[in-house]
Design goal:
The protein has about 280 residues and is of the alpha+beta class. The protein is built from four helices and 19 strands. Strand 11 and strand 12 form a beta hairpin. The chain starts with a strand and ends in a 6-residue tail after the last strand.
Length: about 280
């Protein structure tokens, strides 16, 4: 069963994108995981399927992690999909629907795409955590990474603030913290260094994906958590290994993220070549 696909990325955070708006595709969790494999498949940080939508949204975006599990949010994928749909519609604006809600998006004058990621959710049950806890100061640590703040951007995030990012190996601390019992759904782990009141350096261990060049929702979480701690203002540039994102935490609680998108290549994929 040959179907077209796109390989897209936002700052190196990469996605395989299939279009199922005209007819359903037999994409199971196992098949998505096999295609996401970087040695035996195409390889990606998240696997995206576009599905039809209505009632205020132009497209429904289904997000799967590299292990096939479904995710509620992916900021960079949203920007990529929004850019694609805006080109199709010849419009500067679109709305992308996910299982976590609707995400209005627009293309800015400089060609970058800005998406409204919705409100940051700050309660312990929103993250979620395993029990009642102060989301500004979680009682977990791994070496020098300790005392994180947590929030949900449609998916769970914990941000550890460090004086020097080189003090922690994210490839070691990340998986241990992702699976800490305080996170019943696991969590995305951000390691942040505040460089200035409007500038954060960030490295992210993504839930099920590992170290990635960029994570949009983690960048949003980092600015929200830094502002809650009084470390930054509500607007900041977040510098990730793949490049910079601009994050604004608005007074109404919504978080805006802007940055570049790209299509790396397109091709044809034989779905039946991968186990269902």
């Amino acid at each position: 069963m040959m179907v077209p696909f796109r390989k897209m990325h936002g700052l190196g955070n990469d996605f395989v994108v299939l279009d199922a708006r005209d007819s359903p595709l037999p994409v199971t969790p196992a098949r998505a995981a096999a295609i996401a494999d970087r040695r035996r498949g195409i390889g990606c940080d998240q696997f995206i399927v576009l599905e039809p939508s209505r009632d205020g949204a132009d497209v429904f975006m289904r997000i799967r992690n590299p292990d096939g599990t479904e995710a509620g949010a992916c900021g960079n994928a949203t920007r990529c999909v929004a850019g694609l749909v805006m080109e199709e519609l010849d419009s500067p604006r679109t709305t992308v629907r996910t299982i976590a809600g609707d995400l209005p998006s627009e293309r800015l004058a400089d060609g970058t795409v800005r998406v409204d990621m919705g409100p940051a959710r700050l309660g312990w049950a929103d993250v979620p955590l395993a029990g009642v806890a102060d989301t500004l100061h979680l009682p977990i640590a791994h070496g020098l990474a300790r005392d994180p703040a947590a929030c949900s951007m449609g998916n769970p995030h914990a941000t550890f603030f460090l004086d020097d990012l080189s003090a922690v190996d994210p490839a070691v601390a990340g998986p241990a913290l992702e699976h800490d019992p305080i996170f019943p759904d696991r969590a995305n782990i951000g390691f942040a260094q505040v460089l200035a009141p409007d500038h954060i350096r960030l490295v992210v261990w993504e839930r099920s994906a590992g170290l990635t060049l960029a994570c949009g929702s983690a960048a949003c979480a980092a600015v929200v958590n830094a502002a809650r701690r009084g470390l930054t203002g509500h607007e900041a540039t977040v510098s990730l290994p793949g490049g910079d994102l601009r994050i604004v935490w608005e007074q109404d609680g919504h978080v805006l993220m802007s940055g570049p998108t790209a299509t790396a290549f397109t091709g044809m994929l034989d779905l039946e070549a991968y186990p269902a």
